[in-house]
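Good morning C.,

I know you're traveling, so I'll keep this short. The sequence:
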Amino acid sequence: MRLRLGMVGGGEGAFIGAVHRLAARMDDEFELVAGAFSSDAENCRRTGERLHLDPQRCYRDFSRMAQAEAARADGIDAVAIVTPNYLHAPVASAFLNAGIDVICDKPLCNSYAEALQLAETVRRSGRQLILTHNYSAYPLVREARSRVLAGELGELRFIEVEYLQEWLAQPLELTDNKQAGWRAQPEKAGAGCIGDVGTHAWQLAQFVSGLLPQAISAELSTFIAGRRLDDDVRVQMRYANGAKGRLWASQVACGHENGLRLRVYGSEGSLAFCQEQPNQLWVRPRDAPAYCITRASSFQYAENRQLARVPAGHPEGYLEGFGQIYREAARRLREGPQAAPLLPGIEAGVQGMAFIDAAQRSSLAGGEWIDIEEFIFH
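The tokens, ready to paste straight into the viewer:
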């Protein structure tokens, strides 16, 4: 039986809500049955009508939705949060406190302090919060992680990650572009480029390497005059084993669309993954020819090969990555965290917010090195 899904945000004019709805339906694990799609009542009504939902389950605000759905015998099993960042924590808290599991878009919330409060809410509620870092679900990203953790690269020495875009190279926030508009407001976004795409790069590097930096030094820049948040981020990283890392995230890098790229170097070889070519993973052993592993090929580890949704040679990427997150979310909601151990959750969310906080403090202090401690549940 499919799990019943609700959604907060994702009304007319939104982008990521449609992505989540497609992903949730991809494996027939979820059925969307309720939503508070917009603070605009007419937008919410039209969205619900277009999605063929019961008008009685299209709510004017998320608090009412959480209470009403928790009281129904056929209420939702989980809610997907696809709002601007400033609403993530209050919406998640409302549903967690109502006994409903949460699937939330990244970043987790607006501040590190808010993230710690939300983590406590998750602990008290006994419910689950799943964070949709979709790139970590790509089959070849999982393959890269498997090979690194199996020791194929030897002792890790360098980790290089970048996420480059150009879409904010002009002040789109001064136009009627809805996506640019809220992302340029500190009150709604919390952070700029570092939160929007920097956290993707941060999580990907950590996910594949299995390492969390001990300390970082950062420079956050704003290249567009009058812009209130950062649009370019440069971070140096130090690891406990002596490895070094660099992260560059930018939304003003002309010529780049969604250039998420990861390279990991060790004593016995290196590997490289580029999100814009998601069906290829390059491996370069020491003193041996480089080779390319393609998605769904016999060269993949079996547990990663089975993640492929279409035959080898057919493109697979962004939407399927989201689909895999929802497939594993369904498994976790039914069977518990042990059923989907690689799925990002509250800990990944808190670590992402700790990264943003440390990077902002470092930048304000002229690039001072800031210690980062891994969030540990007690």
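Safe travels,
E.
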